[in-house]
Amino acid sequence: ETGVTQTPRHLVMGMTNKKSLKCEQHLGHNAMYWYKQSAKKPLELMFVYSLEERVENNSVPSRFSPECPNSSHLFLHLHTLQPEDSALYLCASSPTLTGGNEKLFFGSGTQLSVL
Amino acid sequence: RKEVEQDPGPFNVPEGATVAFNCTYSNSASQSFFWYRQDCRKEPKLLMSVYSSGNEDGRFTAQLNRASQYISLLIRDSKLSDSATYLCVVGASGGSYIPTFGRGTSLIVHP
Do the beta carbons of residue B72 and residue B22 sit within 8 Å? Predict the structure, then answer.
């Protein structure tokens, strides 16, 4: 148990659906991240929040919309996705963004399939 | 040149073998280095941080070579349970730190 909880664990959605992924961390961390991991590909950073402010957006399509209402919760809102968006979506948190202590703690991920 | 590069493998070794992975990074100002382990279809988990003086945790030894800009992970007396993908993570210096992942090196330990 890493202290980072993601729901749902699995999600199947059609291209016209709207769904949301949820992430909650109980570690008192200030930074939260969304990563995408496609089959046989490296982790791709999507979004980074520090103290609820977005600090990084790696050219992610607008069909992915993040929300960070407070430092413990992070959402990823999904709409009109494409089949190539099928992947494992991982949430992570770290104590801060600066200094030398940025160990990442990951949630179990949401395995997303877009039909 | 990619920011963080790893040989994807797979490295296929027998139980009890010693195996080493390298990871090269392009940003000479990088200050933070980590090795993560990821099992199939699971989340990455921190294996160990990498310090300038090198560090050891049981059968695992991590080293940093700043001059050549690479870090290494040595696994001694490999176990079947060591089979996984090993991810190298590098952070930038100063300012805001965004962790950068390598694509991972796959290790298969067989009986």
Answer: yes
Q: What is the DSSP letter of A115?
A: -
Do the Cβ atoms of B45 and A106 come within 8 Å? Answer: yes
Tokens 């940003």 belong to B27
Nearest Cβ partner of A98 from B42, B97, B101?
B97
Residues A21, A108 contacting (CB under 8 angstroms): no
Rounded to an integer, what distance in angstroms lies between the CA atom of residue A33 and that of residue A48? 5
Decide the pairing of beta strands B55-57 and B45-49: unpaired
Task: Please tell me which residue of chain A has the smallest CA distance to B6.
Answer: A42
Subunit contact B91:A102, Cβ cutoff 8 A: yes
Phi, psi at B81, each rounded to 5°: -70, -10
Please give the average per-residue pLDDT across B39-65, as a whole number.
Answer: 93
The Cα–Cα gap between B34 and B81 comes to 20
State pLDDT tens for residues A3-32.
999 999 999 998 888 999 999 999 999 999
Backbone angles phi, psi at B42, to 5 degrees: -120, 175
How far is C-alpha A109 from the chain's CA centre? 8
A99: alpha, beta or left, given left = phi > 0 and alpha = psi -120 to 50?
A: left
What is the rounded CA–CA span in Å between residue B52 and residue A85? 39
Residues of A in contact with B95 (CB under 8 A): 98
